Amino acid sequence: MNTGLGRIELGHLVGAGDGPPRSGPAVGVWFKRGLLGLLAAVVVGGAVWVLMPPSEGNVVQTEPATPAVAVADPAAGASPIAMLAAEPAGLDRLKISSQTWRRGGLGSKALVTFTVRNDNDYAVKDVEIVCAFARRDGSHLTDRGRVLADTVGMKSRKTFARVPVGFVNINADQAKCSLVTARRA
User: Fold this and answer.
1) How many CB atoms lie within 10 A of CB 183?
2) Longest Cα pair distance anywhere in the chain, in angstroms?
């Protein structure tokens, strides 16, 4: 049972409106040039990608943000008004009481489950954590951070389940998370 599709020539499709249909070596040369151009574009694009500097997208901020201060102009006749953002909370009575991690996103992302315990007399919000990932032998691989917008009430604890903290190295076997900053709610 033969449909006869084996006799369709590529040259008839390529030169459809350019006069007589082309076939034979001219089509082969055109096809080879196109394939060679595609291969060259892939090689050049790959070389540019390899030579680019690493991304700064997942770098953890080392200094906590300072509160913004807006003061009215006394020359305009208004009294000075200071508008401060919420005060930073003390981390001495705030801690992570338990933590585990697992892989998600086809094995490339870290999902951390942990419990924040707040022994302060006030609620806290915008809790920032940083997780350090290491190999099985304990050698450090990478750090990933995340700010959690939820509020942890005073004298209470809150569990955050499967929080994505970022991409991790395939060799990561251990994770240790710690608190960086928090603000009074």
Assistant:
1) 19
2) 96
- For 28-70, write each residue's pLDDT tens digit: 666 677 777 877 777 777 665 556 555 443 333 334 443 433 3
Token pair for 32 = 């080879």
Say which amino acid occupies 182: A
DSSP state of 136: T
Domain boundaries, the chain: 87-184
DSSP strand pairing (124-134 vs 140-152): antiparallel
CA–CA separation, 107 vs 109, rounded Å? 6
User: In terms of pTM, does the model score above 0.85?
Assistant: no
Residue 183's alpha-carbon distances to 3, 54, 60, 147, 177, in angstroms, are 74, 32, 18, 11, 18
- What architecture (CATH level 2) is domain 87-184? Sandwich (2.60)
